[in-house]
Amino acid sequence: MIELYESQRAMRNMRRAAMQRGVVAVLDVGSSKIACLVLRFDGTGEAEGDGIGSLAGQAGFRVIGAATTRSRGVRFGEIHAMQETERAIRTALQGAQKMANMRVDHVIACFSGAEPRSYGLAGQIEVEGTVVGEQDVSRVLSACDVPDFGDGREVLHAQPVNFALDHRSGLSDPRGQIGHSLATDMHMLTVDAAAIQNLAHCVKRCDLELAGVASSSYVSGISSLVEDEQELGAACIDMGGGATGVSIFMKKHMIYADSVRMGGDHVTSDISMGLSVPPNLAERIKTFYGGVVATGMDDRDMIELNSETGDWEHDRRRVSRAELIGIMRPRVEEILEEVRARLDAAGFEHLPSRQIVLTGGGSQIPGLDGLASRILGSQVRLGRPLRVHGLPQAATGPGFSSAVGMCLFAAHPQDEWWDFEIPVDRYPARSLRRAVKWFKDNW
């Protein structure tokens, strides 16, 4: 635990240093593509307003380089073949550096998958003086009971999401206020340690310094949910190629995250098997003709399958769009059912507003929002990431939600546990308390 705390702290310091030098790269390591953006900070640093949710254009940075490449060696959002992934990262990085016309040494990366688990922790202390200071915040964070989350797992995010001073709850920052008893609620996200280590190792092999890691579910939520949704309670469903991330936000903080090990690539492989066509052709058919709701027209709407097997009869086949939808829909329904199970486990129905935002490359299937609102039983909208200065038009679609979210995460990091000087002797005791019910009780 202490090494983890120190390593997260070292990364945060490295990120500060990189931002002071004025340039940092963000890397979205996905199962279908690897995207790299190079950001230049112009020294204004703080945005007007309170960080996330303020207009991205005012965030004190602009994108000066962008590149994407087909992902290799990544399955279910986790690295499986180190050398292939390293080559793909290098390709994306070189493309972005070339466009930016400068070399980058520090990178902040995000990934999906890695079996995230959410914990809600609580801590309470008596304030030492009459005014709450930095030291009191450190003490109340270290008073949180950290669960025994098992070997082989690491804490990826640990954010105080709510403070209460005496009987006033819902404070985002108690420092400087007068009171006696200070309590906090903290959201902690742990992931499979091997996934982080593989990513860090891969980045090191590309001669880069890793200056931060984040969960894709978290950063896509930051970029796709509008301010009201982050405040009142909303879920972001990030449908990637190999994994679908689920995150719930409330009071501008992520209070739950999980992921489903299925995504758009599974739909493609179903098409590939169902129509006996190679995967790259299946991907094209999905992109141009795909859908999940069949109408009477679709029986007559024929799709030419021109593959290159050399067997003339086999190559000149036609299938109806209704047939294609019949192959795609069951898998999409399966993914949404899994998402629903995750939202139910988190107690999503107890939030005051139950907006659901679909984003990620897989969310572009026509008719998906209607099917999702039927299965998830909420208002569903399709989300695109916020506009960011300098972002090329090609990188503004839903497939870039996590890459854009990483930019906002770099520019306005939310307070995490390791930003505070926690005395080592007060290092959290580890008692088991796995619960997400605290947001039912507190809000």
Question: Could you characterize what this model shows?
Answer:
This protein is of the alpha+beta class and about 450 residues long. The chain has a domain at about 115-190 and about 420-440: 2-Layer Sandwich (Dna Ligase, domain 1). It has helices at about 1-20, 80-100, 135-140, 195-205, 215-225, 225-230, 265-275, 280-290, 310-315, 320-345, 370-375, 400-410, 440; strands spanning about 25-30, 35-40, 60-70, 75, 80, 105-110, 115-125, 155-165, 170, 180-190, 210-215, 235-240, 245-250, 255-260, 300-305, 315-320, 355-360, 380. The strands form five sheets. A five-stranded mixed β-sheet has the order 3-2-1-6-11, sandwiched between helices. It is globular, with a radius of gyration of 23 Å. It starts with a helix and ends with a helix.
